[in-house]
């Protein structure tokens, strides 16, 4: 008897690795194809919500994440100008949620290494690096396949595009220019930096700075003092122009107004920011997940969190189909649910997260007019009334609306 066809997963980013690991843990054959020759070594996104940790727990890697990462104390919004760096609002992260999960910070390249190491132990999983997919097709509408750069056709039970914002799978399914939404006119620059001056001020583990011109985010991403500094700059500038402007941006934004000899810049990555979502995440045996299906700006980490939620639901669907508990129609429900969550939760919240940093004349106007700030200030005032005395500038994190959706409720009874 011939071996069952594997599920083909395109792209060894966090979503592709996680989906491959979840499926292979249940002995479902998986072939992961990645055009690069190794994992991305850059320490990129790093914060994983308690809700996301459910999926890492199901993949069996959460203890390693907890031991290698750290637990951030919360997030604040601050002013840049006098009184310098003072807090407007702080939200504390809870010790854990009702299920015992808690937010953890671990740079993405280290998470990727954990998942790759575990995936290599699974007999039903295979990773092929240096393998570029250039086309897709179907055989008798039953067996989808991908065409590799060398002309080889690789067949699978399903093809899952986890190949990022420039997804080749999406483009071959729907066309080169298909991706509903828009591109921000703001230029984002992401950097990783070691700078001792962060330790000399009362920074939190993560903070956003509200400023019409120099809006930015500073977050600790490693215990050794590596920080992520992501800031806005003038749109339309070349890489070279943005690189020339970086020292002056740091001098203005960072405590101590440092010159380049005072810090070590590890990474400098300008990129365009998009708010986009496909009109369909499924077409026959082909599916799109995470950044291949939808994008949002990085302020608040909802792109990564939404992608992890995509993968968790898709895993439940494919597991149900494999076990005979569901048929293909469950994938249509997954498609509907995931796009609905992007439009109703991820898109509006991530859009507001970015706008509140720059759209007001300054922090004082933002505190007066921004709905989120108004809500948090009212909560603070109510708590002070209940306590009777004392000023409170920190609050417990109210959390996000759920991004996960339990697809097992659609299994056959």
From TrEMBL:
GO cellular component, alphabetical, reads: mitochondrion
Q: Which keywords does UniProt give here?
A: FAD, Flavoprotein, Oxidoreductase
Q: Which domain of life is it from?
A: Eukaryota
Q: Where is the composition biased (Basic and acidic residues)?
A: 382-395
Q: Which Gene3D superfamilies match?
A: 3.30.70.2450, FAD/NAD(P)-binding domain (3.50.50.60)
Domain FAD-binding as annotated: residue spans = 6-173, 266-346
Stretches for region Disordered: 382-413
> Which GO MF terms are attached to this record?
FAD binding; oxidoreductase activity
| Name of the molecule in the record | FAD-binding domain-containing protein
